[in-house]
Known about the structure:
Number of domains: 1
Radius of gyration: 18 Å
Number of strands: 8
Bound molecules: flavin-adenine dinucleotide
Oligomer: single chain
CATH architecture: Alpha-Beta Barrel
Amino acid sequence: MQLPFFLAKRFVAGEDFTQAAPKVRELNEKGISVTLDLLGENVTDRETADTTTGEYRELLTGIREQKLDATISIKLTMLGLDIDTEYCRQNLFTLLDKARELDQFVRIDMEGSDYTQRTLDLFHEARKEYGRHVGIVIQAYLFRSREDVAALVRDNADVRLCKGAYSEPRSLAYKSMSDIRAVFKEYAAELMKGTDFTRIATHDDHLIEWTKRFAEENSIPKEKFEFQMLYGLRLSTCEELVKDGYRVRVYVPYGTMWLPYYTRRLRERKENIWFILSNMFRN
Ligand SMILES: Cc1cc2nc3c(=O)[nH]c(=O)nc-3n(C[C@H](O)[C@H](O)[C@H](O)COP(=O)(O)OP(=O)(O)OC[C@H]3O[C@@H](n4cnc5c(N)ncnc54)[C@H](O)[C@@H]3O)c2cc1C
């Protein structure tokens, strides 16, 4: 399906790094750090996976050259996880070589449950080799996450905790918001107490307020965790958090392959659809 880019531009910072970089700078000037995400998913040929690995390496260099306060997030299916796990590992390590050389950081986004085990296995391998230059994501909605969190805490890993964005079967994942919030809090507590730094990725006021309270009650300083939100959502909340001394990072996607990402954002909230529709009428 071909949709014009103006429909996506609330959630996507541009079609290339040149367009995205000024948006990153604007956020940095507000005291907000950034995670850059070159959009795309499920690459099925080696040529595209090799090109993508090269583009990510260039992105790390671009961030350094432009002196941006930004790291990157990647999806392993873009580095060839659907083609061959060993091949994907080589691409990941090639990228992490660059991250280590530039003293940068690469977070591995978490995709659908078919990939969870392989993603965690590759992360644990990468963590042994690249230490603090690599991080991972946990989706609270998956039943398996309790054990995954425990292993990550033992490893003092750098974890982004989110609810989870994919449509998973009832046999694998919690479905109700109250269950998901309950496990989110349980894992956030373990990570905040048991690791050096935790990333709380949510727009949910209930969880944001809970995190602030939990940190205060457990004497966890504001320097030991950050809130993460998506580009195009709740900027004023991000600004208020910064004003109150909290660390905030915004996930900024860019690229030409924006349709799957954009569709997930629309599925999540009706308000997002209304925003797009009202923008359509204004344009
Ligand atoms: C930085 C970041 C990285 C992520 N990485 C991944 C990943 O690697 N893998 C993955 O599966 N998922 C990822 N996600 C998506 C995540 O799993 C959720 O699907 C998504 O964040 C929606 O859940 P939520 O907690 O933000 O709020 P929701 O569950 O969508 O909403 C809960 C409540 O939050 C408030 N709220 C939410 N949005 C708005 C808004 N626009 N305006 C006002 N109030 C609002 C409302 O009170 C609402 O009732 C990521 C999310 C973020 C923020």
